[in-house]
Amino acid sequence: MRIASNRICDIERFAYSELEGIYPQEEIRGFLRLLFEEYLGWDLTTWLLSKQKTINQSDLLKINFAIKDLKRHRPIQHILGKADFCGMTLAVNKDVLIPRPETEGLVELAKSNLQSPQRILDLCTGSGCIAIALAKVFPNAEITAVDISEKALGVAQQNAWNQKVTINILQADILNNDLAELPMFDTIVSNPPYVREQEKAAMQPNVLDYEPHLALFVPDNDPLLFYRRIAETAHKHLVPNGLLIVEINENLGEETAGLLRAKGFETSLHNDFKGKTRFAAGRRE
After folding, report:
1. What is the pLDDT along the chain (285 residues), one digit of tens a residue?
2. Strands 238-247 and 217-218
3. Backbone angles phi, psi at 244, to 5 degrees
4. Interatomic CA distance for residues 100 and 116, integer angstroms
5. Which of 18, 33, 211, 285 is deepest in the core (most CB within 10 A)?
6. CA distance to 40, 70, 105, 277, per residue, from 79 (Å)
7. Gap between the Cα atoms of 219 and 217, Å rounded
């Protein structure tokens, strides 16, 4: 099935007929707004005033393919090649997790708890969203971003260039590398893999089929393995009274806090904007 004509109203009808039952109507409307903005350069007002206008065949094909991709659950961020985070537009692809609005809360926690940090370490950086946002907030800080994936680090470096900030890029497997060469840091942040294998069944196809499992999942029998390693790294590389902030599995808040306390961190839990337990923050005792 293809779009009946080049008119905007027909494109809308096609989108709703193809995507209803897969996405809520309001989400479909949001997709259309993003597609018209990306491919036509239209804002919302122009769209609403242009229902009877026609578009050229090239733009029609782009929108048609995008709707077909959405029907296959491909994330809109992958279709457009970008995602918004902390007021920035960052490049994303299949090699990195799409930055989530919830993760912006980690940046806000850092902003509210830090004065003038000299060095910040971001473990499991992915797209670099946290490291780059903190580089904007603390332009005088030296920031190091670590990830196991060379492809992910390539995305992070490109995003840093696009945002005109400088971050140090380091490829390392934090589970099997003691990171002994690293200096001391005022702050260590991380959004590591934390979704248990048993939780896959509750996840949407646009995540399961398109985002890197390496950055998502941990085994059911050891779901806190990354936090254990992060805490050990922080114990060695955080200055006295240094700050550790991690994003966590909402179902394992107390377990994660208990692990960090056992590793010598005075720890508190914090909610995201949805009211879910999403972050643990600790000071080295």
Report:
1. 677 789 999 999 999 999 999 999 999 999 999 999 999 999 999 999 999 999 999 999 999 999 999 999 999 999 999 999 999 999 999 999 999 999 999 999 999 999 899 999 999 999 999 999 999 999 999 999 999 999 999 999 999 999 999 999 999 999 998 788 899 999 999 999 999 999 998 889 999 999 999 999 999 999 999 999 999 999 999 999 999 999 999 999 999 999 999 999 999 999 999 999 999 999 987
2. unpaired
3. -115, 125
4. 26
5. 211
6. 15, 8, 26, 31
7. 7
Residue 158 — left, alpha, or beta (φ > 0 → left; ψ -120 to 50 → alpha)? alpha
CB 83 within 8 A of CB 210: no
The model's pTM: 0.95
CA distance 128 to 164: 13
Is residue 132 within 8 A of residue 165, CB to CB? The reply is yes
Cβ 103 vs Cβ 83: under 8 Å = no
**Rounded distance, CA 37 to CA 179, Å?**
44
